[in-house]
Amino acid sequence: MIPKVVLLPGDGIGVEVTEAAKRVLKYVTEKFNVEFELVEKLVGGASYDKFGTPLTDETLQACFDSDAVLLGAVGGYKWENLQHNLKPEAALLKLRKALGLFANLRPAKVYPQLIDSSSLKKEVVEGTDFVVFRELTGGIYFGEPRGYNKEKGWNTMVYTRFEIERIARLAFESAAKRKREIVSVDKANVLECSQLWREVVNDVSKDFPNVNLKHMYVDNAAMQIVRDPKQFDVILTSNLFGDILSDISGIITGSIGMLPSASLGSKYALYEPVHGSAPDIAGKDRANPIAAISSVAMMLEHSFEMNKPAELIYSAIKKVIADGYRTQDINNGDCKLVGTRVMTDKIIENIEKIYNEQALGVFTL
Length: 365
Ligand code: IPM
Ligand code: MN
Hints:
Elements: E1 4-10, H1 13-31, E2 37-40, H2 45-51, H3 57-64, E3 68-73, H4 88-98, E4 103-109, H5 122-125, E5 129-135, E6 147-148, E7 153-154, H6 161-177, E8 181-186, H7 192-205, E9 212-217, H8 218-227, E10 234-237, H9 239-252, E11 260-264, E12 269-273, H10 290-304, H11 307-322, E13 325-326, E14 336-337, H12 340-364
Parallel strand pairs: 1-2, 1-3, 3-12, 5-10, 8-9, 8-10, 13-14
Antiparallel strand pairs: 4-5, 4-11, 6-7, 11-12
């Protein structure tokens, strides 16, 4: 069976970075002689403009028929005043829910050459390497009742034992393979919902005696991430807290334009950059494609067990950065400023170079 990948470029810079990701995906799959079927569909504001809805049944069905989905970004000023269920963001939330993507993995890792791009001190960020496990299909994002009128707006933060347990298990499994440290973030001093969260996480931890578990309140966690990010290995948290903490984590890597993410469920998977649609720089060839290209690497790893090609992509990105190429978001003065397209060209050139070097290595063995 030929693996099927649905591309959803979406809005703003989503279009440019998805094009970059597609080029890299095509390049590596051809290099490794594997066939992939790529299907492209509209989502978000682009879909609203054409069909009057941010997510058509056809796009959703294509995702149901897929082995993986690669998304760019959704949203923009143009659609800000639409009612909630017509906003571009509603498409993303509906996709996550319909595909059952309960686990959102957001790694925050420092590229040594980019340390100067971070607004934090070098000695604070150096060596940081953690991953946020954000619950993605529950919590206040989806809780009922919800609504608003002229006098009142309300949402419900609710979690079931089942929902907490399945994300906690994944986070513990990951921690067991990493530095065996997990910090579960909640607000158990105020919220009952967090009280259950803490109880369930404690229960799950009994199955992982080698993993060290700590609990942290979300306000403190936000502070600790910028104060001493190196203390973290795996952060486990709910939907809303994870949304906020993963943006903060973007500061550590120099730019949110570097951060990929994977949203996983028991059947489907979606990969997307953590950044948004950045309408202010859309269509100007200024967006950083690295988050989207790294998302391709995550996809190859998690959905297709193609670890070698994924490694190749990561190595090429590192090399391009080491060679001094920078998009404007990670521009730290003394470097070669390039646009989305040239950055992608450079990454592809380096994939080719590293691939050939490795092939040569095999011959001379
Ligand atoms: C994210 C985004 C989304 C979220 C929005 C666009 C709905 O901020 O993926 O982090 O809040 O989850
Ligand atoms: Mn967010």
